[in-house]
Design a protein that fits this description.
By secondary structure, this protein is of the alpha/beta class. It contains 13 helices and eight strands.
Length: 342
């Protein structure tokens, strides 16, 4: 009963955030798409299945759009995971992208990764790094290697002060320790075939700087300071939802931030947004256009609304649900789960 009440409270908060986002009198995202004949926004295909394995996490990051943390009880069950495996068998899907919370904390995580790997799909795990330094998860890096998992990890800066401010005290040191272990196994090393990518997101209200230049800075500093290597840096814009929206409202800077996103709208980025080739699966099996719509409980506009009745043809022919938060993905160079777009 207590867990149900918590979930109902989260749904109420999501609905309230949608109201706040849509209450603005500024230009709507759909109107911007109409200027370049892109409305309604439609999928280009279904290539990526992005699956939220649960909202349980060992961290409470101030920017987290999932609102994840140690107190969250939402965990994807084995029944829903089985349905995800069946959906992933569709030949149009080439990548399965696992998120959380900390996806490694799902009790069926290892089994699920092995099952997906055996399908011949690319498996991405979005790890917060620090979870890999806890006793129960120390062997996960080797498990990643054995299953040729692509690791994508958040590291919002190469300095301790900025990381700990955004993600919590002690997070930077644990993150560096985890990266060293991954490097020892070959991750991020040229020619190893083991891909290790890092994620940058701004600590304030700014947009990410130019990605390739920032990547060069990261590579230089992490090599000099810690002898660390990685493959790519993905620069991702903070979207005005969940904890970040709460922060903007508290600081009375929501209008300022939305103005910035609208003012830097890039129609070329809009053509390549991730929702056009991705379907997001919530921890309970519900389907969404993207991870951000998932957190706002904006379900897909399709009869195929749950992973249990996953239908690629129906999903390919849907209109993508839009909102003011979509300006975050199309501002500047654009933003996706694989970094900048243009």
């Amino acid at each position: 009963m207590q867990t149900l009440q918590k979930e109902n409270n989260k749904l109420t908060l999501a609905a309230e955030q949608v109201k706040i986002l849509e209450a603005t009198t500024k230009i709507k995202f759909g109107e911007k798409l109409k200027e370049t004949n892109m409305f309604p926004l439609r999928p280009t295909g279904i290539e990526i299945l992005q699956i939220n394995l649960g909202k349980l996490c060992n961290q409470v990051c101030e920017h987290c759009h999932v609102d994840a943390g140690p107190d969250r009880a939402e965990i994807m069950t084995k029944e829903v995971l089985d349905a995800c495996i069946e959906a992933a068998k569709n030949p149009t899907i080439d990548t399965v992208d696992l998120t959380g919370g900390a996806p490694e904390m799902n009790p069926n995580f290892r089994w699920f990764v092995e099952e997906i790997s055996q399908l011949g799909k690319k498996v991405i795990v979005r790890s917060n790094l620090t979870i890999l330094t806890y006793k129960k998860y120390l062997d996960i890096p080797l498990f990643f290697k054995d299953n040729n998992v692509t690791v994508i990890s958040s590291l919002p800066c190469y300095t301790q002060g900025n990381v700990d401010k955004q993600r919590g005290s002690g997070v930077f040191k644990r993150s560096i320790d985890a990266l060293k272990r991954l490097n020892e196994l070959g991750y991020g090393k040229e020619g190893s075939g083991l891909e290790l990518n890092l994620v940058y997101n701004p600590t304030g209200l700014g947009l990410p700087p130019e990605q390739s230049g920032l990547q060069a800075d990261y590579k230089r500093e992490l090599k000099e300071l810690f002898d660390l290597e990685f493959n790519n840096l993905f620069a991702i814009t903070n979207l005005p939802i969940s904890r970040f929206l709460d922060f903007l409202l508290k600081e009375e800077r929501y209008e300022e931030y939305l103005d910035k996103l609208i003012g830097t709208y890039n129609p070329l980025a809009a053509e390549e947004v991730m929702c056009r080739n991705t379907v997001s699966v919530g921890w309970d099996g519900k389907l969404f256009d993207c991870d951000f719509n998932q957190m706002l409980e904006l379900s897909v506009a399709s009869n195929s609304q749950n992973i249990s009745n996953f239908d690629v043809e129906q999903l390919k022919n849907r209109n993508i649900i839009l909102g003011q938060h979509c300006f975050g993905c199309t501002a500047g160079a654009g933003s996706s789960c694989q970094g900048t777009i243009t």
